Amino acid sequence: MAQAFTAAVVQMVSGSEVAMNLASAGRLIEQAAQAGARLVALPENFALLGRREQDKLAVAEPDGTGPIQDFLAEMAQRHGIYLVGGTIPLRGADPQRVRAACLLHGPDGRRLARYDKIHLFDVDVSESAGSGERYRESASIEAGDQVVTVDTELGCIGLAVCYDLRFPELFRVLLAKGAEILILPSAFTETTGAAHWHLLCRARAVENLCYLLAPGQGGLHDNGRRTYGHSLIAGPWGELRAECTESGEGVACADLDLAALQRLRARFPAVQHRKL
Question: What is the pTM (predicted TM-score) of this model?
């Protein structure tokens, strides 16, 4: 197992054209790889953030094949990296909805894991009915029901997506399954991000004594939605290791040291002291 390595989170402002989004993602992945990153994570909806929620149905792919999945495999193999493909729309059982699938590819391009977003963002952000801050992901997305970790040479990786961040019990299950590195592709709204993003990311990292990589969308999108950005890497003591502090595209890199993580867990065994 690689005890120390560089990881990167990619921040994007994805729009309604898949080809343009993939071109942007490819350029940012290359930038991260050139900076020495062996693990690179893309944000939620990196390949499409359409004008309407139903737009994702038109580009949804069957599991295992399609231009977006082929892109992830090619990028991982080309750069010899572990690549987390944010979320992409994969076809599910309901033809009117998709699965929001987070995919992990290894350095040889082979897919190692798939996690389907469990918690769907069905909320009214604002008290004002006319503000437009209303979201119903369940209208176009089928929820997943499987918690996913995968052992790699870099460490044990646990996958979650965006709104999952608000459900600490999910992360406890990931921890119980061996997670050392939590990866959370996101597209937090500007409103909820300003209120809760840093607080929740740091809490999930420190309470589980894990590294947390949180790549996000960060800017104004074709549908008029504004996302918070601040893509970050948090350490197991809750410290910020790296962050994209500006809106717009960006890459933030930090070194992850799994030997140091295990030493911290040994001298501060909070996760072993749980009673419930």
Answer: 0.96
Q: In this predicted model, what pLDDT tens digit does every residue of 75-106 receive, in sequence order?
A: 999 999 999 999 999 999 999 999 999 999 99
**Domains identified in the chain, total number:** 1
To the query of whether residue 44 is one of the catalytic residues in this protein, the response is yes
The residue from 44, 137, 180, 190 that is catalytic is: 44
Active site residue 102: no
Domain that holds residue 91: 4-272
DSSP code at position 119: S
- Choosing from 102, 137, 156, 162, the catalytic residue is 162
User: Residue 56's domain is classified under what CATH number?
Assistant: 3.60.110.10
φ, ψ (nearest 5 deg) of residue 119: -95, 120
Token digits for 246? 């500006």
DSSP states of 230-249: --EEE-TTS-EEEE--SSSS
Identify the active-site residue in 56, 61, 117, 142.
117
246 is catalytic: no
pLDDT digits (tens, 9 = 90+) for 248-271: 999 999 999 999 999 999 999 999
